[in-house]
Amino acid sequence: MTDRLTRRGALAAAVTLTLLPLTLRAQPAPLPDKPFAEHRVVLQLSDDDSKKQSLVLSVANNLIKAYDPDRIAIEVVAFGPGIDLLRTENASRTRVESLIAQGVRFDVCVNTLDTIERETGKRPAIIPSATPVQVGVGQILSLTENGYTLVRP
Fold this sequence. Notes:
Keywords: Signal. By secondary structure, the protein is α/β, with parallel strands linked by helices.
């Protein structure tokens, strides 16, 4: 009987140790600026189409309405032609800044800015509240590896 209990205990310990990494991976660390976030979404924007830009903004706004802004972390990553949304002269600038005020983060790809500057001789003017990231796709990869769900509206 004692042997059987010892084996059961060893088996339970082995199962627990085997499943521990899955449990840890399922629970991402709290975000410093959103410690109560239960949901994490990264929205990819790589098109200069104004309808797609508007859709990304609508999705972010709808998520903020559906969840308490403190309970959801939303990050919009713009790269390639998608950075047009974050240009200072974009007609949607007020909507972008309103979402930023509600805790949505907007990332702009520095590689894209560098490429535009090389090709045109002028760096695009980007809204100051956008967060520069070196590689937009790399930022998306990092976020998804850390518990974010990727949505490409």
